[in-house]
# Entry
Amino acid sequence: MTESTALITDESTFSARWYVANTEFMAVNLGDRISGVFWAAFLLFSWTAASIVSGAIIERVTTFAFGKSTINSYIKLKTSELKEFKRKNNFNKKKPITAWEKINTLDC
# Structure
């Protein structure tokens, strides 16, 4: 393969000369706002992905440490507590803390 067939070096869009790292097209253009938008979107996406992965890791460690039966028992306990609260009380943000909340949620 000769040099003329391996790389396109003319003025076309697919020319290899536009994709060299030291050209003005590959550098950061601070005047172009859309590249900043894409950069910010990528940054937010990467943070979201990292958060999801770390949450999955924490869940696996917790499940391994306590065991599935312990975790399922805890979930069952908390579900029954919430059902009891819904049956006995009516939650309202404007009213003070209920007796049920003092007994079951506050550690004072």
